[in-house]
Amino acid sequence: MPLRHLETFFEPRSVGVIAESFTPGTHGALALHALASTQPHVPVVLVGPPPPQAPFPAIPSLADIEDVPDLVLITISACQTPPILMALGERGARGVILTQHDNHDPELREALRSAARNSGLRLLGPGSLGVQVPRASLNASLLQSLPDPGGLAVVTHSASMLAAVVDWAQSRRIGLSTTVSIGGAWMSVYRICWTIWLRIGAPGLSCSTLTASNAHGSLSRPRAAPLAPSL
Question: pTM for the whole thing?
Answer without folding.
Answer: 0.85
